[in-house]
Design brief:
The chain contains 7 helices and 3 strands; from the N terminus they run βααββααααα. By secondary structure, it is mostly helical.
């Protein structure tokens, strides 16, 4: 879980709309929200689906809107995880606009090869995780989007369960390398999950 650099203490539970008080129940509610969202969006997926910033915010809102008032909205607090400081909250909107203009708007409807698809998934996944636009649920939103990108092309979803304790440090390092626009590491991870 990411830590917040704000008046909220580290490790505190985020206030939620259901007034849930224990971590296990909150985790289950979040899990169910993302599961239902993935089922719903997969069912609605078509060859003309466009992945945009609005679409990504919609994923987050649909998955967590029952639980958090900030669902679908950019974070307003600065965050760190494992000593890594994510981009400042004040630049999230700008970073997401650049992400859309330089990456999302360039995604084709159909891919000429699986390898080109892997490269685009890696860029989208890595950039979204690096920007970390939301207060909670960034990893799940990025994984769900990656699965939708794969399914749009007629493949099964990626096997994110392969990211175990051994692979996780490589995954984190791959996302951090995106800061330098090095997508080679995250491409290798996505290729493993395909």
């Amino acid at each position: 879980m990411a830590r917040y650099l704000s008046s909220q203490g580290e490790g505190e539970m985020l206030p939620n709309l259901l007034n849930l008080q224990d971590k296990e129940t909150i985790d289950l509610s979040e899990f169910e929200g993302f599961l239902l969202t993935e089922l719903s969006l997969t069912e609605k997926l078509s060859g003309r689906t466009k992945f945009t910033v609005k679409y990504i915010k919609g994923i987050h809102k649909l998955a967590l809107g029952h639980l958090y008032s900030f669902a679908g909205k950019y974070r307003t607090v600065n965050m760190t995880k494992g000593g890594f400081l994510f981009p400042s909250a004040q630049y999230i909107a700008y970073n997401m606009d650049v992400f859309e203009k330089e990456i999302l708007s360039c995604l084709p409807n159909r891919y000429e090869s699986k390898e080109v698809l892997i490269k685009d998934i890696a860029r989208v996944h890595g950039e979204l995780l690096f920007i970390h636009p939301f207060r909670e649920g960034n990893g799940r939103t990025a994984r769900l989007l990656a699965n939708l990108m794969v399914r749009k092309q007629g493949y099964e979803g990626l096997n994110f369960e392969l990211i175990d304790n051994k692979l996780f440090p490589r995954y984190v390092a791959a996302v951090q390398a995106v800061a330098d626009k090095d997508y080679s590491k995250i491409e290798r991870i996505i290729r493993l999950l395909f």
